Amino acid sequence: MLVRMGLRLLLAAVAAVIALGGCAYDQTGIDALLKPPKLSDEQSRIYTALEASLGASAKGGIKLVYPRKGSYTSAFVKNNLDGESTAETVVFYEVANSATATIPIRINVLDQQQNGEWISVSDVATVAGASEVEKVSFVSIQQQVYMVAGFNLATTAEKAVVIYCFEEGMLKEKYSAKCANFEVLDLNGDRNPELLLITSQQDESLPNNRLVTAELRRITSHGSALLLSSVLLDPTVTAYRNLVGGKLADGRPALYLDGLRGANYYVTEVLACRGNRLENLMYQGPEGENLVEQTLRAGGVQPMDLNGDGVVEIPVRVLAPGYEDSEMHQQEYLTLWYVYREHAGRGELSLSSTSYAAGTLNYLFILPKSWVDRVSMEYISTDRELVLYEFTPEAGRGQDVLAIRAVDNADYQREAAEKGYSLLKDYGQMMYAYKLGPGAAALGATPDLVQANFILQKLQ
Description:
5-stranded antiparallel sheet, about 450 residues, mainly beta, 4 helices, about 45% strand
């Protein structure tokens, strides 16, 4: 959700304001720290055209609205909506109005003329009560482009999704629905994106008195959303924080649902299709044999594709060796990553890799398989440093193997280079450095291994 300014600016903001612990996975609210980016020259021209079109109605001021997630995170979403030679730009915005308690989000469509100038051609209100734009997608059906836009209502767990079409010079609403979350992706493998809706309603016969379903809908050539199939979801999940598209180990497209239980516990469900029939591979109903319980974890590291092969791994946190009897605030954790596979007609979770996940510093260090059960770690929050060291249950802590430190760019020479650290990653205002310890040789730790196993990745 923190993608508006790009990962580089996000990391810089995080580094500047937070002292980070290795076992901390809390939601930091960094979104509140972000300021809208400076407009480009073209965006400034579009903004000027928007102001001109609104005239006196915008005297209270225009506030641009940035989608929170997805491929389009600018308030200026450029696409060819009508098939003509020039593009259109969709602008999400609000106008200050002291006469109303809420400021409705509106959409303005501006068309680029042959001379390069922009003019407003359509302006519509969005869903009543919309507080944020969640994400935006575009789908092309028989040469007609449809915009699928989602809006957060009272909370991020209550959304409205709308399919728009630009026709006859106007932006028109073709379909709308209320939901808990949604995604646009090709889940049945027919090369046309579908709309997947997560819905929730009261049902006293089920756990938590809730019936939670996922609906797979085909976006038609008329802009409607035809129901293809639906499946039950885990009713103990109170909200779906992230929907991660990828594939299964067998190559089928899949959608991984990052579900919240209680205040800070998460589980993962996996949706896939056989033909047009939607399946929940992890949850088979209240009486079924469910894999979802195996994914229960504290904290917010989300499912992700770790090695770039398209297959999404599911995280589960476990105590690091040696911390079994430690006070809770002193405990350190490893993250185990599992892949869903089917064997002899049954689903199972197969361990893929083991890592240390520095959630608020946005990096992973994948432990070589030969290190598992032979190392443990300590996170030194004052130095933003992870220390991996040899460990056996009999002898306890042994020699240090590797230290990884996050350093502000301005402090790198004093806090890292002069102390014998080598550069690991330079990421703008945040730099990552490492130093091999006296136990490195025994475990085969080399500079190349450290580089290969360090992954800079937005984790929350």
